[in-house]
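User: I'm curious whether this sequence folds into something compact or stays loose and floppy. Could you predict its structure so I can see for myself?
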Amino acid sequence: MSSSSPHPLPTHLIIVCCHAIYTGPSTPPPPSPSSSQSPSNPTAPSHPSNWLLAPFQTDEIPTFTAHIQAGLKLLASPSPLPSPATTGTDQNSNPVPVSDLDQDSSATSPSKQNPNQPTDSTFDSLLIFSGSKTRPEINISEARSYLNYTLANSFWSLLPPAPNPTNSAHPNQKQERELLTSRILLEEQALDSFHNILFSLLLFWKTTARWPEKMTVVSHGFKRARFVELHVKALRFPLARVRFVGVDPGYMLADGGYDVVRAEDVRKGEKERGFGAWVEDVRGEGGVLRGKRAGRWCWGVDQRWFEDGVEGERMRRESGVGSRRVEWVGVDGMGRERVFVEEVLGSGRQPWEED
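Assistant: Here's the prediction. I'll summarize afterward.
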């Protein structure tokens, strides 16, 4: 994009961490009575029959929907400076459930935008759906399935619609919509939450030839401590430029049918097997966490940061990232013993770090 464009190259990375796979069509269902969009209707994209869910993900489709919608709202809004990601973090490492757009959401909803923000503001974000091919039943990535689900719901009307011939107030809506949809990317390599951030950072650079000035991560609220206290710090991305948007399942929210037993079980599981596993192995290089990745590695998606060959090596040099390659033997998601080839962070300074 040329420097003369009213919408310059993106500086804000928005990551929506994917958690399941939508298997339905990418086209909206045919027009019919309003009940056709009810989650109880099998033709509705949000019906459980259109999703591959783990047993513990029962009733979480609305949560995944809210994650996507939060990302779209951020994409379609002028990008604010992030509030410190540590705000509201439980100092005892207990994840804190939060509501729709977290504690500092003033710039993510059109109804709450800064009244001093000009109407012709530029858009400076890239939205990345992040998640690999994690299920043996279907050869599709979590990220691509989230995009298909988004298309099936017509973006929930969160992006500018096509211009209305009878309304000349917004002549640039079509151009804005095309720009915003072109800035939705798929990161299809990540097999865990640490790599949701790492591979998304790399994709941002591969797309823009720059590193993001700010980053927003959208996931479950109860995973806040894992992302903020562990992943961001392990990557050495500046915390002051990170925002975490947490959206928890309804059963963890007071106004969403709070289930104390299930909620406490989830928090305990995150503290012991999520946060707890990562605090012992902050970059996921040990046997426990790489074993989890192996179990999700069903379709042989390349885990290298750049492709081999002249072009890949050129991009690696220009990016300035430092890594080392590791190989190990494990059992993949299809039950096959395989040699896994991964890259891990090098010990030197990374290009996204502050001087």
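Summary: The chain has eight helices and nine strands. The chain has a mean pLDDT of 85.
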